[in-house]
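The instructor's notes for this session suggest beginning with a concrete chain rather than abstract definitions. Hand out the sequence below and ask the class to guess, before any prediction is shown, which regions might be ordered.
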Amino acid sequence: MNYCAISGALGLGSAATAAQLAAEGFRTPRLHDRFHDGEIQQLIRRLGLRPGLDHDHRTDHGSLGPGQWWLATLAREIEMPVATLFGWLKRGWVTGRQDTRPPYRWIITADSAEVQRLRALHQLPAGYHNRRRWTGDGTPIGTSKDQGARQS
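After discussion, reveal the predicted structure:
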């Protein structure tokens, strides 16, 4: 059972979530017997799992405007990991700013065309951008054009 299911369905806080995970036999990455509530809170922040906060559209400048998304909400819309979208933000592939109020979430600017572009980008095979750099002409390795060049 994941955090959302535990805390959302049962209404548990961090300490109770840690106890529930221990009761279900989950162990920490370093194989400790139980999670500390601080670890649960850190994990929640890292993964952008904050039940109810996606419905809080207030920011330091009022409401989220048209074409503005919370990072975790946009990641769910595109059906991709939050960490991947955050990486794209850091690379400059996505435009956004960090809210100045706690919990300092990221606000991403993306109209419907940008959401479609991000979906298409997410569908590219793993390593596509690295391979494209090395082929020189933008042709991904493994395509028919690339294979014809190898046979020459």
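Then share the key points. The helical segments are 3-10, 14-23, 37-47, 71-78, 82-91, 112-123, 128-135, 144-151. The domain at 54-141 is CATH 1.10.1660 (Multidrug-efflux Transporter Regulator; Chain: A; Domain 2).
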